[in-house]
User: Fold this.
Amino acid sequence: MPIRRGRPRSDAAHQAILDAARELLIEVGFTRLKLEHVAARAGVGKATIYRRWPSKESLALDLLLELTSPYIAIPDLGSTRDELETLVGSIIRALTMTPLGPVMRALLSQFAGNPAIGDPFRATVVRARREEVARVMARGVARGDLRPDADVEIATELLVGPIYFRLMFGGDLSPRLGPQLVETLLAGYAVAVER
Amino acid sequence: MPIRRGRPRSDAAHQAILDAARELLIEVGFTRLKLEHVAARAGVGKATIYRRWPSKESLALDLLLELTSPYIAIPDLGSTRDELETLVGSIIRALTMTPLGPVMRALLSQFAGNPAIGDPFRATVVRARREEVARVMARGVARGDLRPDADVEIATELLVGPIYFRLMFGGDLSPRLGPQLVETLLAGYAVAVER
DNA sequence: TTGGATACGGAACGCTGCGTATCATAACGC
DNA sequence: GCGTTATGATACGCAGCGTTCCGTATCCAA
Assistant:
C-alpha cells in the first residue's frame, strides 16, 4: 500500500461533481449532459473530472450505483403478500420519489448498447433484486403461501418488468401499481380451477 | 394537391438508405451510428438523407416503425391460453429472429428521454399491443376462461414487460419464455384458494 | 425540343462537445 | 524548504452533426 504523497484529492470537489452531474442529468438527460457544464456548475476544472472518471459513461454509472445502493432487505413480515408488496413498493417509490427515476430514465439508453454501463449494473443491482425476490419467495414456499414450483426468475420479471416498462414507455407509476402486480402474480387471471 | 415538378425522388436511394441504416444500426448501435457511414454504404450523398429525414433520430424511428408494422392480429383459436401464447410468442420471435431485436435494443435508449421517438412509438406500437391483448382477453372473458375483472393494462405489461426487461437487462429470450409467462399470468403462484 | 424545377452524389464548411495537454498555483509529507 | 501531486483555467486536436454549395441528371410543361 503506497503512501499518498503530494496534494490529496479534494473530497469537496468530488462531491460537488457528483451533485452537479446528478442535477444536470435529471435536467437534460444523458445525451445532452455536457461535462463542461458539470465542471462549471461544480466550480471545478474539467481535468479534475477526468482525473476521477475516465468517461462520461463511468461518471453516470457511479451516480446510478450511488442511488441504487440504499438497498433495504425485506424482513419476514409473516405474510408473503405483504413482503412482495413492500418489495415492489420500495422499487416504485425509489423511482418516483428520489432522483433515481430521472437518472435511470436517462441511462436506460445505455444499458442495452453500452456494456461498460450495462454489465456492472446487471452484476450488482439486477442481481440483488433477483436475490431479494428469491429470499421472499423461499419464505413464501416454506410458509405454504406459494406453490413450490414457483419460478424465481419469472416472478422477478413479472414484478419488476412492468415497472420498467412503464418507466420506458410511459404510464402511471402510482403506488397502486404494486398491489395490482402482486395480486395478479399470486392469483392469476384464470377462473378458479382445481389444482 | 400540388403537382410534383422536377426530378422525382429516387425510391432506390430511399430504400438503400433504409437498408444501410438498418445494417449499421444493428452492427454498432444508435450512438455509434454515423450518417456519413450510412450515406457511404448506401452509395448516396449525405444531403439526400437529410432531404428525407430531419435527423438521425427520425430516420431510426422510421426503421423501427417499418419493422414493427407487420403486425398480425390473433385469430380466435378457441383457447385463451393458445391465443396468449401465440401473441407473446410472436413478440419474442420478432425480437429474436428479425432485425427488430437489435434495432429495438439500439433505440430503447431514446424512448424515455426523447419524445420525438418515444411519443410516436407509444401512439402506434404500444397502443396496438394493448388493443390486441384487450381483444384476446375480451374473448377469454366471454369464453369463461378469464375472470371478468381482469385488467387489460396490467395483463399487457405482465406479458410484455418481462420480455423487454430481458431485452434490456439480459436474460434468455427463448421461445419457452412465452408459455411460462402465460401460465403464470393465468394460474398465479399462490397455492389453491377458494374464490 | 427546350427550359424550368427539383433531386442526385460528392465535397467542403461551421459548430459543438469529448477528451488531452499545459499552465501557474495550492496543499500535502518529509 | 522541497519534491510531489492536485487544483482551476485555458487552449487544443479530433470527430460527427447538420448545412451549403457544386455540377449533373431527370422529370414536367410549354
Remarks:
- Residues 4-10, 13, 39, 43-48, 51 of chain B lie near DNA strand C (CB under 10 Å from a C1').
- Residues 115-143 of chain B form the longest helix (29 residues).
- Chain B has nine helices and no strands.
